[in-house]
Amino acid sequence: MSVGALSQEAPFAARAQPRAGAPSAEGAVVSVRLGPLALPNRYFLAPLAGVSDWPFRLLCREMGAAIAHTEMISSHGLVHGGDQTLSYLERPASERPFAIQVFGHDPDVLAAGARVAVENYGPIDAVDINMGCPVKKVCGHGAGAAMLKDPRLVERTVRTVVEAIAPVPVTVKLRAGWDEESKNAPLIARACEQGGAVAVGLHPRTRAQMYRGRADWDLIRRTKEAVRISVWGSGDLFTAEAARRMLAETGADAARIARGACGYPWIFRELVALERGEAPPEVSLSEWRATILRHVRMAIEDKQGKHRLARADGAARPRAYRPDGGHEHRDMDAREAELAAIRELRKHLLWYTRGRRGGLAFRRIAPELHTEDDVKRALDRFFPEDGSVPPEVRDEPTPTRDLPADD
Ligand SMILES: Cc1cc2nc3c(=O)[nH]c(=O)nc-3n(C[C@H](O)[C@H](O)[C@H](O)COP(=O)(O)O)c2cc1C
To answer: Is residue 124 in a domain?
Structure first.
């Protein structure tokens, strides 16, 4: 699950345009149960490796996402206390409910890792087990989507984790199956239910498909029919209309928005407004600019260690800084923190600006952005506050329609 794959393949909607469609006449926002929790609506931010860190989760929650899981966290890393691993658990104390996702291939290690997180780094309100990750490095060890090959292992894994962290609710994220010949999501969902999961999330593409082709929403419907626990649908939810259509067509209990939220956290505000029967507020230029700059500020604060966790076992164990996500638990000086933050945030900046007039010019100079001031200056240059169109971007096409929701 590389962020690169996201940049290349995601058919981002034309973000400068109002695109939420007509409000429904429904009025009441449907809430969802997650074990003991009552979530205020059925729109969730999906786990996104390299993307769903606390600043992005916070923005999505503020826009209305009912819950936002961390990216997948290695259960082995949790047991062994790696600093990189622990950095994924960082968040403001106000992030409640706080939900994490873990991965691994061994039921006992998965259970032990989840328990370390819950006991040492809580409060943690819900734990999701990843059985959907398609990448070789994860499946090669029998974790992620590789678990779908063995329904008995799935059931045992879920039961072991449930018993280890009860009463914290456990959910499982699935793919359609390993490949076209073994699309067994309904069977696997039943195994999860037997093991004690309170919900399954389904991204209805096979592991073999990775992110290609269309998500098979009908498999969400069939999985929903196969179990009594909640089913959260995912896959090609690039616009609010698509997410609402998926819910209507499949009977799923919730929609997990993934690539559709990248560069567009406002999708959650649209979803909630539509469900209330209201016209979603448009995103003004000043709100858009302010959100980007706030994201930049929070990313820098993150790198400065604003929400660093006190380790359960004392000293930090330094690891090399990874430019594609995470950071070691040592103090970076202010300059290093800023550079690291902007380097990691560049992908978000490209997503925010995609589909807007000025976006092409912004993309060209993006490699030269290194500081918060650089980002401010680039916004002023290509997307000035007064809404004028600078001469250098006048020839860029103005997006006129949403892109289709397929790859
Ligand atoms: C860059 C990227 C990272 C992802 N990371 C995770 C992850 O850590 N855990 C997980 O369960 N799914 C992960 N996913 C899958 C998404 O949660 C989602 O199920 C999938 O993208 C389908 O939804 P979409 O077509 O609306 O994007 C990732 C997807 C992408 C594109």
So the answer is: yes
